[in-house]
Structure formats: C-alpha cells, structure tokens
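Exercise 7. Given the components listed, write out the predicted structure of the assembled complex. Treat all entries as one system.
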Amino acid sequence: MTRSEALPHYVESSRLEHFVNYEVLGKTTLRVQRWRDQWKLARRRPRPNSPLNPPLRSVAHMKEIMSRHYLEGRYAAGVRKVAWVTSGAPTEPLQALGYFLVYPENHAALCGVRRKAQGIAEEAEHAGWSRDICSYARTDIGAMISGKTPAGRLPRPDVLVCCTNICQTVLHWYRVLADYFECPLVLIDTPFLYQEAHDHEVAYVKRQIEDMICVAEEIAGKSLDETRFRDVMTNARRGAELWLEVLNRSQHRPAPMTAFDGFIHMGPIVDMRGEAVTVAYYERLIAELDERIERGIGAIKEERYRVLWDNLPIWFKIGDFSKWLAERGVNVVASTYTFAWGELAPMIDPSQPLDSMARVYLHPILNRSTGHKLASMRRMVDEFQLDGVILHSDRSCKPYSLGQIDQRDRLVKTLGIPALLLEADHNDPRDYSDEQGSNRLEAFIEMMEPRG
Amino acid sequence: MSRVAAIGIDAGSTTCKLVAVDQDGTIISSLLEPTEPRVELQVQRMLDAIRAEHGANSSVRTIATGYGRKLIKDATRNLTEITCHARGVFRDLGCAGTLIDIGGQDSKVIQIGGDGRPVDFMMNDKCAAGTGRFLEYTAARLGVPVPELGARALSTAQEEPISSTCTVFAESEIISLIARGAEPDSILRGLHRSLVGRVVSMVRNVGIVAPLMLSGGVAKNEAVREMIAEATVEDVILPGEPQLMGAYGAALLGI
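Answer.
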C-alpha cells in the first residue's frame, strides 16, 4: 500500500455531487445562514456588561464567504484542479487557470480558533513528528494523516506550491505532503532581503514563477489566459489596497476595529486574493467602518490605551484576549501580521504581472531584515498613536520571533513606551500559561497608566 | 483615630505579607506568614488582626498584590508585584535603578524610573529555574534548611557545576552528584551559581542602570547577593526588609 492509498479520507467528488451539494444546497444554506446572522446582529441589544461594542455587521458576509470556500473544498477534488499553497505563494496564475486553492496555514489557524489544533497536532506527534516543529505544520500533518478537520474535508492536491518567503519549515513540510500525496511539488526559492531586492533576485524569482506556470498548465491541461490573468492581478491589487485601507481605518480614535477583528477579517485576502468577491467584501467592510468612525463608535467601549501586536495571533486565545484587554481599556489597534497582506499592494502591477509578482513575493515582512520590521513598528507606533507594543514571542514561528528581544529593547529605549515580550505559540495551547501571561500583561498595562 | 492610612497585602506563592502605613508612608505594622492553601481566609485573618491592633476600620484603603491578589475580596484595588515592588524599593532606598526581585514562584528584573514607577521589566520564562522554588526544592533534596543555604554555599571554594536549567532535572543531577560522592556544600554553591546565571541574564537583557537593588525572600541569601555582585561587577544594595517590599509598595500606592 502506498502512502497515498493510506489516506482514505481524501475522496473525489463527481460533478453532480459538486453541483448539488455545493452550488445548489451549500450556497443556498449559507446564504440563508447569512440572512439569519444579519437579522440577529441587527436586532442584537447592547450588552451593558460587555467591554466590547457590538460586532461588525460585515462579519455575517465574511462567515458566508469563508464557509463557502471551505465547503467547496469538500467537493473540489475530481471537479477542479487543486493546489495546496503556502500563504506567501504566488497564486495568481493558479487562480487564472481555475485551480481551487487550499492554504494549509489558514486551515491550521481555523483548527486553532476552533480549539481543535492540539488534538489534531497530537495525531502528527503520535506518528513521530517532533513537538519542536511548527504547530501549523503539526496541525496540518495531523489532519492529513487522520482526516480530522473542523472544515469537514479537504481536497487532495494535484500540485503543491511552496514559497520560502515566510520560513524554511515550509520546504520540509511540503516535501512531507508531496511524499504522502505523491504529487508534484513546485518550490519557489526567494532570497532573503537585507535591503531592497536586486534586479538579479527579481529575475531569479520570476524565472521560478514562469516554471510554476508551465507545471500548472500541464496539470490543468490548458494554457494561461492572459486576460484572465490580468483580471486576477487587478483584483489582487485592489483587494490588497482595500485591505490596507481597512487596517488604516484604525488610525482613528476610537479605532473602529481591533487587530483581533483583523485576524478574522483577513481570511478573504489570504485565501481568496485575486477574486472579485474579496474586493467586494472589503468595500463593504470599509463602508461599515466609515459609518462607525462617523458615529464615533469604537470597537471597545472605553479605549484608554492603544497597542500594537507583533507576530501571529495566539489563535486559540483571540476571543479571550480581545475581551480581557478591552475590560482593561486596551485596544490592540494594529498588527504587523495583518499588514503583511496589504502593505505590498503598491508593488502589484497588472500591466507587468510576472515582474511585479516576483518583486511582491520577495518583499514580505518575513523575508526582510529585522531592521525593516523594527522600522515598520516604529512607523506604526507613530501613525496609530500607540501607547505600547505586545511582541508575541511565538514558539512555532522562529523567523517572526527572531530579533524581537532587540526590537523590544529599541522600542522601549528610543520611543519611551512599554513593550512586552509575551511567550506563547500561535496554535499549541500547551505552550501558553494563562496565569503567567496575564500577570505580565497586567504589569504592562500598569506601565501605560498616565504618569502624574 | 487610627494612624493607619493604607494597608498593603502581598499574597505571594511562598509567604503572605501585610504592611500598614501611616499618611507619611512610614511602616506602622507588618505581618509575615507562610502561605496557606486558602490564602483568602489567611489574608482575612491577618487583616482583621492588623486592623484590630491599630483600631482601623474596613474603609482604610487596601491594595493587594502577589499571585493571590485576585482572591482578596477586601482589596480596594489589586496591582501586580512589578508596580508594587518598584514603589516599595524606590521609597525605601530613595533612588531609581535596577531592581532584582527573586520570589518563590518567579523572578523579575525591574528598571525603576525617577518617579518610582517601572520603566521596563522582565520575568523568568515559564519555568521555576531562577526562582526561590529552585533553591527550596533542591535544598530539600540535600536536607539543608533554607535559611542556611547561602552560608553553606559560601563555606566552600569547591563548586559542582549544575548544567541543567530545569528544576526537576537539576534534582536528578544532584542525585547523581551525591552518588558520586560530591560534597553537599559544593553542590549548593553550584546551584546558587546556576540560579544567579539565569537572573543575571535577565538583568543584562533589561540593562543595568545603577544602583543594583535586590528584594524578595531570596535577597536574604548572602550567596545570591555575593554572586550577583560578582557577575555584574556592581554593588548590590538591599532595602531594610526585602521580603516586605511588595506589600509596602502596595500600601504606599493606597495612600
């Protein structure tokens, strides 16, 4: 029995199943659920005891979009070509070729938010994967081996696309996936940038994207339609621009949304960048945020302190943190993580798709120097008028956590604001201690109190 | 009328401390007891005693700190040990600087600003190494009473290196050292060096702004004081009652 045969939970669907379960029943059910959610949100009475103002109404649409994406995933195998991709992979040509995209990192985060990650990661650990490996990787490998997922079912990939612009773990992780699924793995190697990218580095990445397109065309059995590709690039740029606008709305006082909201609302730009639905969603969200700003409604009821979050969220704690911090007047209004999907928008040029893609996918924050991240944080402290910084030292994400001790030190010494290094993990609750974490956070908040 | 202007409670993991101060911030009375399992009942009993002694009523502002602070129902407010220790030591020693507080459950380095408030701090990570518990736990294995630990460690020039940074694994290492015939005092010296190594690493991360000050129960240990001074090449100064600084700071913040 091959490894591929040992994964019986990856089944193919027929076109009829896809049509009935997804196109007809699924979409209709999700639309009805969205109406129900909208109705509930519209009639929701203010909760005097909650430190948070009512949630954004757009959340009902976001839930529908994301649920629809994962629902289609259940029936995509056998109907559409499927690519599993890293969060920083150049996916626009794949979308233009009609691929259904699965983002294992996003799936792992979903498991984290639903507090299922530990149990699924343990499946990987029981199969021999070390606990020192990234908890996203362990969650997804565990889901692959066991078939356990809160998404119901993921489609088997026809191709894997791994881009090293976020970390080196993905290289080994995707080799494991390729081994299990016995499918082609396309690797996009992105040289680490200490400064802006040199022309030869852009040319090197562009060449690899061209190679990826050849492989993807062969698997899809069709050629890349340039008009469709340009449309996807246009949507990708517009979506990223709008996402950046969404985030920058929190420069207002009080901020209309928290970074914790941002961690959830980033779903479409991660999973569906390049799609018209993403553009439409962020236009809707901006309109709602503008309405809140006009009416002076903040995300939390009493915004006394404005804080920056560095690194990935602690997925299994975002709801608790959001409330706990709001109770103490803290609004986490910005995050380096959510900005990563918007700040490169100006680089996307649909008239030069391959060149601009090569440039964009070389420049994510994780592929750049620690000094660059420090400069971004300083700029955000200034632009968002921040009182403090929480640096999540993420046990799983070494590239993001590297340099945080020095970054924290510089922020404290040069800007004179408190900065806290909070030890945790983005997906594994075994690496976070509530008692110790909340004690440090309380001391951090006390340090932000106005000095008499 | 009672002289008590405020009461500070430090419900720590090892000991429970209460300090009553007058309007000028002078200590009128203090109590210190080993922490009992039901810390809220213990604190209530201690509070009643201190109030009765000075004729203070329950309207006197009471600030709680320490790990058990949230259980104290009579507290007007609760604050972290970081803020309270900084305030207590600042008032006692009268200067800003770098404070090392080694408690039973955690250790912290606090940079105190010119107004007596913390400017920056760092705490030990999710591990008991580098805390009073580390010494307590391993002292028990060697059968040495905690108050004698420092003197015993300084009584010898021989030092058995303890390489493990984990309290539990350090105990295994001690068992091996004993089995190999190592002297208990040499083992103790090595243990102290290991604890100080972790604390000094935090001090370097926060950065030393002289003077270097020490509070918390472990401040009473002369070997810890000497080794910190040796490693940092700084004089280490102590407040009068290092163990009471959290409760004292809490009381001062209640005035």
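Discussion: Chain B touches chain A at residues 67, 79-83, 106, 115, 117-123, 125-126, 205, 207 (CB under 8 Å). The two ends of chain B are 16 Å apart (CA to CA).
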